[in-house]
From TrEMBL:
Subcellular localization: Cytoplasm
EC top class, as a word: lyase
Protein name as annotated: Argininosuccinate lyase
Lineage of the species this protein comes from: Bacteria, Pseudomonadati, Pseudomonadota, Alphaproteobacteria, Hyphomicrobiales
Family to which this protein belongs: Belongs to the lyase 1 family. Argininosuccinate lyase subfamily.
Entry keyword Amino-acid biosynthesis: yes
């Protein structure tokens, strides 16, 4: 038999393979609450503007509420033959209330219907991520406060560079996840326009009130161009972009946790609740959660490229290609939610080995820059010359297999006559970090200021 929803001009129904490639009910059933809310708002508007009768609206909304509880209690029978969530619900509404159900789709198309459902879903997901990032930021601030003066090696090229504080390193992630959160908010702000009422692509001749439905559904205003409205998936692309960037941040930290937790580094110990053992090697404690966060980033990135590629050649307005938007976004959302939750758990629990960090911070001539800076400050050398003198001191220490602070004053004076006792104070890692008091620098006093700033900022929103 042909399709009840659009089968007027069709003599026969679709091939089974056509049905299989066409149906989206397997995944878009996730949109049922949004679909019902959209329909309730649309029906109320149709009644208010006199397009349908109050009696029809009453039946429609009662029927939709029945369907909502049927779906929620698992009694609803989804049908692949009915393609998608929109037609499954409308068909059931017809069974429940008869001809009045057929009036619901007046002045509406599935093109604006799916756009409004999906926007509502993405907006709610963005609000979830906003809260989850708030929890993650809080966890970072708590750990940073504990470790604002804990010295660790800072790296460039993963080679020891200069001593920094662990609190400062954690606060770097606060900046990153803070930017992610502001991207979430920007995205919400930009997508906060209601597609409902654009109809198929041209708008409608019925005297609808799009401002009424926009308001009822919690959008700031209706969209302004009906063609753009049904063609646009920027909100989904923006979601995937910000998810990918946030994923990259999580992945970089995950990679650091993997490195830090190796016995060779020994900077951190993962809690039992966020690590796993090996079935053959009894001594092992593996950072699986961190590794999976790192890996799942690939999946989220893939979804972004996937949807960008779906959209890139589409002429205006709606094409069925756009049905491919949902699985990408649903999976990216579920994946990112889990990644953020796992990272939050790890950060809360992670044990810090301050002694190992400090020891490593002193290796690799990490205070060489401090020596060069001292020569500039105390002996008036131009920085380039000071750099050269320091290089010779490093070479000598390397030859003697000791740290810079273990070179004798005679040795140092043989390299440059202006060096005196005072130099030793800048060669310790603690003094090195304490001296980095520039705005945003690693000095414990600066790190504390930034923690305070962030606490204030988080309390405000
Ligand atoms: N299931 C479709 C989607 O996800 C709904 C819109 C269908 N519209 C249409 N004209 N076939 O995009």
């Amino acid at each position: 038999a042909s399709n009840r929803m659009w089968g007027g001009r069709f003599a026969s129904g679709p091939d089974a393979i056509m049905e299989a490639i066409n149906a989206s009910i397997g995944f878009d059933r996730k949109l049922y609450t949004q679909d019902i809310r959209g329909s309730l708002a649309h029906a109320a508007m149709l009644a208010k503007t006199g397009i349908i009768s109050a009696e029809d609206e009453k039946q429609i909304s009662q029927g939709l509420n029945t369907i909502l509880s049927e779906i929620e209690s698992g009694k609803f029978e989804f049908s692949t033959r009915l393609e998608d969530i929109h037609m499954n619900i409308e068909a059931r509404l017809a069974e429940l209330i008869g001809p009045a159900a057929g009036r619901l789709h007046t002045a509406r198309s599935r093109n604006d219907q799916v756009a409004v459902d999906f926007r509502l879903w993405v907006k709610e997901e963005l609000q979830r991520i906003d809260r989850a990032l708030g929890d993650l930021l809080e966890a970072f601030l708590n750990r940073a406060e504990e470790h604002y003066a804990t010295v660790m090696p800072g790296f460039t090229h993963l080679q020891t560079a200069q001593p920094v504080t662990f609190g400062h390193h954690l606060m770097a992630y606060v900046e990153m996840f803070g930017r992610d959160r502001s991207r979430v908010r920007d995205a919400i702000e930009r997508m906060d326009e209601c597609p409902l009422g654009a109809a198929a692509l041209a708008g409608t001749g019925f005297p609808t009130d799009r401002f009424m439905t926009a308001k009822a559904l919690g959008f700031r205003e209706p969209t302004r161009n009906s063609i753009d409205t049904v063609s646009d998936r920027d909100f989904a692309l923006e979601f995937l972009s910000l998810a990918a960037i946030c994923g990259v941040h999580l992945s970089r930290l995950a990679e650091e946790i993997v490195i830090w937790s190796t016995p060779q580094f020994g900077f951190v110990r993962l809690s039992d609740s966020f690590s796993t053992g090996s079935s053959i090697m009894p001594q092992k404690k593996n950072p699986d959660a961190a590794e999976l966060i790192r890996a799942k980033t690939g999946r989220v990135n893939g979804h972004l490229i996937g949807l960008l590629t779906v959209m890139k050649g589409l002429p205006l307005a709606y094409s069925k290609d756009m049905q491919e938007d949902k699985e990408a976004v649903f999976d990216a959302a579920e994946t990112l939610d889990l990644m953020i939750a796992a990272m939050t758990g790890m950060i809360k629990d992670i044990e810090i080995n301050a002694a190992a960090m400090k020891k490593a911070a002193g290796s690799g001539f990490s205070t060489a820059t401090d020596l060069a800076d001292w020569l500039v400050r105390e002996a008036g050398l131009p920085f380039r010359e000071a750099h050269h003198v320091t290089g010779r001191a490093v070479a000598l220490a390397e030859e003697k297999k000791c740290g810079l602070e273990k070179l004798s004053l005679e040795d140092l004076q043989a390299i440059h006559e202006s060096i005196n006792e005072g130099v030793y104070s800048v060669l310790s890692v603690s003094n090195s970090v304490k001296s980095r008091t520039s705005y945003g620098g690693t000095a414990p006093s600066e790190v504390r200021k930034q923690i305070k700033n962030w606490r204030k900022r988080l309390a405000k929103d």
